[in-house]
Write a structure and sequence with these properties.
The chain has helices at about 10-20, 80-85, 105-115, 130-145, and strands at about 35, 45-50, 95-100, 120-125, 145-150. It has about 170 residues and is an alpha/beta fold. Helix 2 packs parallel to helix 3 and helix 3 runs parallel beside helix 4 (about 130-145). The chain is globular and about 60 Å long. The chain starts with 9 loop residues before the first helix and ends in a 19-residue tail after the last strand.
Length: about 170
């Protein structure tokens, strides 16, 4: 018997973990996930998704996008990339990479740079024209952080929880 030929690439695996992490987000408009990976060993160092800080109830804080600032999610939500950085308690991120489902904002970019992450692989850049993303790209270019948009021949990957085997 020979090995399976239809296995996924490392990039597909790690972006899949980032996407799956995003499913933990309760954000009704922009669920985002992130996965930080050791570039040499291909080991997952941390994951995160966007949500409120520990102890802040997602039933009591707002999820609104518009209105008075304090009545929106923006001053309260921790973004996926920052959560992934903060969720790790011991590993160094120096020289490693982060997979994220949405191009990081300027605040997450600052944390990514400070953590020593040297490559960002992103799925979507839907806010490319925003000042936040323009600032991110300017900082990333200045600091030599490599950017790469995720590319795959896969259109989708299906997970099954109700079968004899979870593989195809």
């Amino acid at each position: 018997m020979s090995k399976r030929k239809d296995y996924i690439s490392w990039d597909e695996y790690f972006m899949g973990i980032a996407l799956l992490s995003g499913y933990r987000s309760k954000d009704p408009s922009t669920p985002v996930g992130a996965c930080i990976v050791d570039s040499k060993s291909n080991r997952i160092l941390s994951v995160g998704y966007n949500g409120f800080p520990i102890g802040c109830s997602d039933d009591e804080f707002p999820w609104e996008r518009d209105g008075n600032t304090l009545d929106t999610k923006y001053p309260y939500v921790v973004h996926a990339e920052l959560n992934a950085i903060l969720n790790n308690r011991s590993a160094s991120f120096e020289g490693n990479k982060i997979y994220t489902t949405l191009f990081p904002c300027n605040e997450c970019t600052k944390a990514i740079i400070q953590a020593g992450i040297k490559e960002i692989i992103y799925l979507s850049d839907k806010y490319a024209d925003s000042d936040s993303v323009k600032a991110s790209k300017k900082m990333l270019q200045q600091t030599g952080v490599k950017l790469r948009q995720f590319d795959s021949t896969l259109e989708k990957l299906t997970l099954r929880f109700q079968s004899e085997t979870s593989l195809p």
